[in-house]
Specification:
With about 425 residues, the protein is α/β, with parallel strands linked by helices. The chain contains 16 helices and 16 strands. It is globular.
Length: about 425
């Protein structure tokens, strides 16, 4: 058994729904065995459970559950911070050329190792990831994640139209690739497969119908795509699917809206559509840094939550500007300020942990440090930078300290990252 003594903060529920959601132990003890949490609470209450187990003293540090990234693009790691366009032009100018390189297995393997290590360096322990159109890109990513026993869900992008030569597939080849990837990787270690239509513009009716069939044939598989990110994208989608009620209905009519469906962005989705999304158990990945970077708009978090939609946080690299969930939460706060609905720091942490787990339909396995959960956790150094140390030195309010951490924190704060109880990163 492993034992860690430190301050511990995690969420037991949505703090906007109950006052009992926040669990904080100033002098806490975390017990881990066989990759799972055995106990988590006050040291004074739990130390008798230790027996002969040694305790690692991490006094002055903060332990929290690992961060969950509900939307990120593996093949876009090399175009982060690419200047000068909104969504559709940005895809043509920057994204598609970069993704074409992932046809090369060696390039995909090297990028996968870097990508997974960067996630861990930033404290991300679970991620829902877009691959490129190439089957090999997803295989490379799965290999890198499996080697670290990381919980990672990914899929090859489906694109049979409106993309450059070399980046399109067909209904037949994409079905074969997905069936092969599901058979080889879904459920292996802590890996999962996601049916991944890039967005409606890039998929024919036949391909979306096929995607819905594959999803129905494999009930444990996820679905991820983009929805209502950019006004021009929305208009082009409406022109391509005139029979659809709205953008969400494009996916719903093909069987792509369900309990394990995650839609990135939803910046311009209306309240009634949020209600339909929630009714079928779908989730939204809120991606503030990319929405700001591409000028897409301001996600109405308060509207989504009011309709009961499950929401997680997505970094959306490469349009997103950082792998850091902490940094992304700081930007989410700014989006809320511009909408007149400031994001509470405990709600922010919920979105990044248990909320993200619930968005992925994994709330029973990950998302906090409750007994029985997988032991994915972080050790955070609240004095990692001189400015953060100075800001926190005279403030004992937990809420204020957490808020400052989301505004001033980044990868430097993440001292250690543990996956299933095994240290996978140390700063």
């Amino acid at each position: 058994m492993q034992a860690y003594r430190a301050s511990i903060l995690h969420l037991l529920d949505d703090p906007t729904k109950t006052e009992e959601a926040v669990a904080f132990h100033e002098d806490g003890l975390l017990l881990v065995e066989d990759g799972h949490v055995v106990a988590c609470g006050d040291y004074a209450s739990l130390h008798e459970l230790l027996g002969d187990a040694p305790v690692e003293d991490l006094s002055g540090k903060l332990i929290t559950s690992g961060f969950i990234d509900t939307h990120i693009h593996f093949p876009q790691v090399d175009i982060i911070a690419a200047h000068g366009a909104q969504l559709l032009d940005w895809l043509e100018q920057h994204t598609f050329p970069a993704e074409a390189a992932f046809a090369d297995p060696e390039h995909a393997a090297e990028a996968a190792t870097f990508f997974v290590d960067e996630l861990l360096r930033n404290g991300t322990t679970t991620a829902l990831v877009f691959g490129s159109v190439h089957k090999g890109s997803v295989e490379a990513l799965f290999r890198a994640a499996l080697a670290r026993d990381m919980r990672l869900i990914a899929g090859k992008a489906l694109m049979d139209r409106n993309a450059p030569d070399g980046l399109t597939d067909t209904v037949e080849t994409s079905r074969a690739d997905m069936e092969s990837l599901i058979a080889d990787w879904h459920g292996k270690g802590r890996l999962g497969y996601a049916v991944t239509p890039r967005f409606a513009i890039s998929c024919s009716d036949a391909q979306l119908a096929m995607a819905g069939e594959v999803l129905a044939q494999h009930p444990g598989v996820w679905m991820q795509t983009h929805l209502s990110e950019n006004p021009r994208e929305i208009d082009e989608t409406a022109a391509l699917f005139p029979e659809a009620r709205d953008y969400l209905d494009v996916y719903d009519r093909f069987g792509l809206l369900g309990q394990r469906s995650v839609f990135a962005h939803c910046v311009h989705l209306q309240g009634e559509a949020f209600g339909r999304l929630a009714a079928k158990g779908g989730a939204v990945a809120f991606c503030p840094t990319s929405n700001l970077f591409l000028g897409s708009g301001l996600f109405p978090l308060e509207t989504a939550c009011a309709h009961g939609v499950k929401v997680g946080i997505g970094t959306d690299v490469g349009a997103g500007t950082s792998f850091s969930i902490l940094h992304t939460l700081g930007e989410a706060y700014k989006v809320g300020q511009l909408r007149g609905a400031a994001l509470d720091p405990f709600h922010a942490l919920y979105l990044a942990t248990l909320g993200g787990a619930r968005a992925l339909d994994l709330g029973d396995r990950i998302g906090n440090l409750a007994p029985g959960k997988e032991a994915d956790f972080l050790v955070l150094d609240l004095a990692a930078t001189p400015l953060l140390a100075r800001r926190l030195a005279g403030d004992r309010s937990l809420e204020n300290r957490l808020f400052a951490l989301t505004v001033l924190g980044d990868d430097r704060v993440v001292q250690r990252t543990y996956l299933a109880g095994v240290e996978q990163h140390r700063r």
